[in-house]
Fold this protein.
Amino acid sequence: MFPETLQWRSRRVILALIIGACLLCLPWLTTSLGLGFYLSLATRILIYAIAATGLNLVLGYGGMVSLGHALFVGLGAYVVGIASFHGMDNGWLQLLIALLLAGLVAVPVGLVSLRTRAIGFIMITLAFGQMFYFLAVSLKQYGGDDGLPIYQTSMLGPWPSLDGKVSLYYLALLVLALCMYLVWRIAHSRYGYVLRGFQANERRMLTAGFPRLRYQLAAFVVSALMCAVAGVLLANLTTFAAPSYLSWQSSGELLLMVVIGGMGTVMGPLTGAFLLLALEEALSGMTQHWMAILGLLILLAALYASRGIWGALAHPAAAGREDD
């Protein structure tokens, strides 16, 4: 699927504006009705949508199937946890450290992974993710397998304290909007078309003289940075940093969010994060066999919405067809 073109009267733009307006009004609605739990759930959805947006850059626009992107989410969370453990609550400094660390890890991981293709790329990213997962488990000083409680949330200067649910929600919403805009700009740039060209026909792009490794590595690093920012926010939401944040299961959830929502679409990751996490919360309260029901719903979505849910909403006539 080629990057979306922006037509202000199109169905997808109208849907996006409606969703944006609902998200802006959500804290007021939940506060008025005394439904604080749903505000926390919405914040969690936004944070995972940020991470899924990062993954969508390499998966949806670059064709790189990564099963290790939760690694960068976990790095961001552990930076906040370890910094708080040592009495450092400066959120800007934590964010800077998280971005630097994620970049330093993403470059060698990307260099090694991108020298392979298809299943090789998937397995190497999975291996790196599990390597850091077991590293987190081995950090006994910082909780080991039990995880690390965070007793002091990040302080972000003029921004209100992240202890408040509303302030953290709006911060996550702002970061998500910026990430989505960045992905949209990348997708519509010369760089984005080259990246998409490698997904469509790598041999032709190489013949034209474009360096594959340079373009794909840049996308891989940018996506890792987005995931690290999501990890910083997730740690402040849960006030906890756990090895499970880095596990392959978490990477698989991010992958599902992108695929279900709609690969190569700006709104797809948010749609997928909402559907997966909202259904998980609703079904788990109804039956202990909720995972089987969720799996069936995911199967139906894959069968009848090949473009993803966002693609089905934006292009209902083509919901069940493959891209041209």
In short: Residues 39-246 form one domain. The longest strand covers residues 148-149. The chain is about 70% helix and 0% strand.
